[in-house]
Amino acid sequence: MDNVLKSAEMRKSVGKSLLYTLPMFLITFIFMTGGKPNFSDPSATLALVITFGLVNILYFMMHFTGRTDRYRAVLFIIFALSLSFTLIRNMLEMRHSMSFSQADLLECKIPFCHLVIPMMILPAAFTKSIIFPGSIINGFASISSMVVLWLVATIVLGRGFCSWGCFYGGWDDGFSRIKKRPVLRKINDLWRWMPFAVLLMVALTAAMTLMPTYCSWICPFKAVTEFEQITSVESVAKAGVFLSLFGGLVVVLPVITRKRTQCSFLCPMGALNTLSNKVTPFTVKIDKKVCTECFKCVDICPLFAISREDVKKGDISLFCSKCGKCVDGCSKKAIHFGIKGIPAGSMKNFSRNLFLFVSFLFLAVFSSGPIMNTLHNLFKLIF
Amino acid sequence: MTDSLILGLSSGSACLATCGMVMFPYLMSGSAGVKRIALDLSLFLLTRFIVYFLLATAAWYFGQGLFSNQIVRNIVPGILYVVFAVLLVWYSLSKSRKPDCPAKIVKTVNNRRLVPVLLGVVNSLGFCPALLLILTKGATQLTLVQSYLAFLAFFIGSSLWFLPLPLAGRVKKKEVLKNIGILATGLAGIIFMIKGLTNIIGGIING
Questions:
Q1: Could you state, in order of their start, the residue ranges of all structural domains in chain A?
Q2: What local confidence, expressed as pLDDT, does residue A60 receive?
Q3: Of A37, A128, A281, A350, which sits with the fewest C-beta atoms within 10 Å of its C-beta?
Q4: CA nearest to A196, candidates A141, A275, A137
């Protein structure tokens, strides 16, 4: 009964939901086909149809059911898996290995990812050089395209980037949904400041060594993308760090806590995005007139963004990634997507529709390439 | 030098978090103006610099005698790095750690001019795991200059945190900064732990 009640306010009729989906339908079609539909390759066409259908059905369901998080998570998780698949496949095709050699480093052939950005800032400011061995403009995952994408997304979505744009977040988001109830409940609040400590350390070490130290020594996602060729004791130690952090923070801890522990306790990009929550127009608000202080939102928030004190004050912290889990989970509909400057409790539907359009469009456009690519390659393998 | 600077930067914040409450009232007591506070702070930092200079010399001198063999030079400091790094991680994250500072003994001195100097001495010699780590590093350097450089980097890193001390009253998010400092200290411990393990493995392989 409660579940029916809580989503009722945001639900729309089939016709209205279709109407809201229509702009997404047109824009994603243009992006996925590049404006020039070509149906000559059957497996590529099938991949396009499935991806296009998936994206638009999920967006339609968000409007039709009034729920956000579960449909976002589907695309977010598929995005993370397909991106790793695409990266690994590219590397196997180009280098016949998931590891990169010193020659690849010297030739700047390493695909760029947004996690490098916090380490690039100080060296770029002081030495006018980019410390990452990737291509600036050309090729797969170039530095300029990734920086521009991240910058735009961060200004618009703030830390929403972590739940709507990050191509790694889907990993621990997925694992955090495996168990219905958490095994480990009590986690010290102190830990949520860890990404800032990591940010401080990697920014300084990168500035002093002119090396992307997070990528070289810490990044858990090296385990599912590319890593340094194992040629020395040091490279073995690095591989050990990558694998243990991936196993611990991306797999085991999310399963037992139902929280996105890698995003909450390690990612320096998350710390940077947390600061950007100050500038974004979108936010999540608590309507104190409706809130009964049941604190369910505190328990279900995957990023430790809501504390009991926050609920009492009617204020959600800057750690919020606007995933929508608390919005869906609040039985009184006291939590809703909002726009800064508009008081809590008013224009709920307008704020949600606007935020969903912007954030989902970003996720859909960003994820559709890797998803289509993955499906296309899988079909080629099967048929 | 990088790891020494990081160690200084990270442990300096935790040191300030625990000792700041003792130092702050002394540096700010009375109707001290900016000049007076700057002078007190300079005396405090100068004393720390001198103490570290002496420690760097002593550590290197004893290190030459203790670590004469190349394998011992790798393995023993490696073990010390790991032990002290574990202590540093424990020190930074231990729930039972009280905001207690060795500098509180300075409270017994009733001479305003001597207080910054004594604070500098006591603060530098408060043998925390971070100082033990830098002593080990200084002891294993090949030349005395390298030992000085390691201590200099540690001094610069840890001193940066003391510079805004006169403005501490105006900082709103002290608790947040303290938390980040504590966690950064733990991370510095992990860096030295990996460094220690690499030294030990390298020493065994070379042996």
A1: 1-97+347-383, 98-276, 281-345
A2: 96
A3: A128
A4: A275
